[in-house]
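Reagents: none. Just compute today. Metallo-beta-lactamase family protein.
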Amino acid sequence: MKIKFCGAARTVTGSCCYIETCKRKFLIDCGMFQGNKEELNKEDFPFNPKELDFIILTHAHIDHSGRIPLLIKKGFKGSIYCTSATSELVNIMLKDSAHIQEKEALWDNKKRLRKGLETVEPLYKMEDAELVNEYLFPLSYEKIERIDENISFILKDAGHLLGSCLVVLKIKENGRIKTITFTGDLGNFNIPIIRDYEYIDETDYLIIESTYGNRIHEAEKESEDLYNIIIDTIERGGNVIIPSFAVGRTQEVLYLLNYYIDIEKRKRLKNIEIYLDSPLGIQATEIFEKHKECYDEEALRLLNNDIDPINFDNLNIIKTSEESMALNEKKGVVIISSSGMCEAGRIKHHLKHNIWREESSIVFVGYQAEGTLGRKILDGAKEVSIFGEKMVVKAKIHSIQGLSGHADVNGILNWVKNIKNGVRESIFIIHGEPEAQESLKDKLKVISNADILIPDMFDEYNI
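Predicted 3D structure written out:
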């Protein structure tokens, strides 16, 4: 069989692995490239979508699922296997992505027409995103799914996002069975609400993520930092703007503000108005509340005591664009809004009204891909462009990496160390920037006898 790395190779986004056996062709994920790699989304797939038998989707985040509507548009007709929670989340996320594609194409075409240029089509439209639901095939964790007499797989909890999974494939060729494991995105320890990642017993080949392959999170300290940032900012009359991924990170931040911080500090937070301004985040929160089978013991204990961990009295849900615009007049509030990398959505409006105010704070709680507005701000840009207008950056900029949904280097190494019988053949490091991948490779050499490889984009291996 062969495996081709069609995304997230020496970069973080665009996850897509193509596997071809003697009888089947399929994908693990089909994600969108983001930041300075987003032009790759317009390139043809390096395989024929019509020939694919199925897709296994590790989780709903757009950098893992975002090109599935385009795949269907190009002729894919197979099943999309994922967990039940992922099937619901990806349904709303892809529709939101289609809305963004259409809106950006409309905006771009207005400028192109003024310049006498040809108009462009969105990557895909709402009707393409809506079609995806017809192909989704929800599965439970730990259930063996047999594709045929030669291919089977199980999904195990990856601890990264509601419904996220590790994929453990068993493929029989030439009378031999090989096990191939994809981590998808491994979760950080003690993420609010959802369980920690599960371990596997053994594998021949391991395809592992490396987003934070050279960093260490300090979750408890940085959760305390979030509280201090909020209090300090409100006291000086500013707003706290939190660009947050609508699915996963938003619900975790709500949990922390409502429960994780100690009781005396929570009392102080109750006097501060907190606004959730993300239509997608609101929908995702409703799905989170449905899928209690993914909750950890702490979240279940709260629910059993009639405590809703992600809903509280001073949380204000913003639904309409008029309500969102009214927040521009607010002072001394916390605004949680998407998108998490500041590339689209209502967060750009909130940045426009606050990034130039030295009394305000911008708090990043997730990974910022190279080339995104969020990454530019986080890297210390003194001036950024928002809606075509140059704006000076005077707000205080913070990064709370301990709230990341990704395992840090210690979390990744811990997971690999706990593979009971180890990795017998090779480890492929993907889904990371080159420095993180090289650093992780050096550390994996110490704990594993497997060959350790960092594939380039479109590299193909016979395994």
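The chain has a mean pLDDT of 91.
Action item: order primers for follow-up constructs.
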